[in-house]
Specification:
Chain lengths: 120, 207
Amino acid sequence: MHLKKIFVCCAVMLLLNGCSPSLIHIQDQAVTADSRYPQYVTDIQSRTNANGILEVQITFQSSKSRTINYKVEWLDDQGYGLRNPIDERYRALSLTRNESYVMHKLASDKRAKDIKVHIK
Amino acid sequence: MRKFKLATAVLAATLVLTGCSQMSYTDGSAAQVKKGNALSLGLDREDFDNAAETMIQSMLSDPAFVGIAPGQRKVVAIGRVLNDTPQRIDTEKLTAKITSALRRSGKFVLTSAVAAGGALDSMSEDVRELRDNSEFNQKTIAKSGTLVAPDFSLAGKIRQDNVKLANGKVQVEYFFLLRMTDLNSGLVYWEDEQTIDKTGSSKSVSW
């Protein structure tokens, strides 16, 4: 009976862990230590372009077809969120099996210095 | 037993109908590669967001605007954005996202005093009509020659084509085109286009 309870608890914990969104946090053009993201994120690049705007490029390649939901959050140099009507909600992205997809995001706000990409 | 059969039939019919009425984004090619589910065959918020994002990324990555120094923002006026679709579209759903991003980039500023079809905000003109009105402190009224003329115009079109497919479904193709014209020279400094393809049952076309 005890074993059953432990098993259920473990299953719930695994389920909850699986549901918690992944996070890619890029600060000073490098991925921070608090970032945790799935294996199908294969490459992360960021730079400030010729117009002085922060841009990021994330490459996905999944071994199975899946739909992910992602949300982008732009932060200023003090870590405060910058409002962007286009990026304020989760958006769906369909990944085709074994096909790489390059997602390109541009801040559109010159104050943006950091970016957080939430994936679930 | 009979009830069970009826319930199964209803469930099957629901599943078939749901499957038939599903609308999706595709690559627009003969292969009809799906790129996710669509909310409708019409233009919805997601489509405007995607189109605006593509245009903003293209514009703010373009070397044509690299030379605009901080503090020397160029003034943009909204030109005509033609709605060449059978749908009633407020084109400001697209242009407002773009102009606010351009403003936040620090390189552009929008004028509401002049636009295709009339000022976005007629108040700039209205306050000038208060000159010689003794009810108003004349020192607080905008002086003549203070409105700033635009450097650029943002104009374009949204076009829709419906294509009947061999399987009886309809592919709706939306074509977004925008261009930025230098109003001094008439030269187009930037332009880009984006196509959004959606496929679904012809019954789900609501216009």
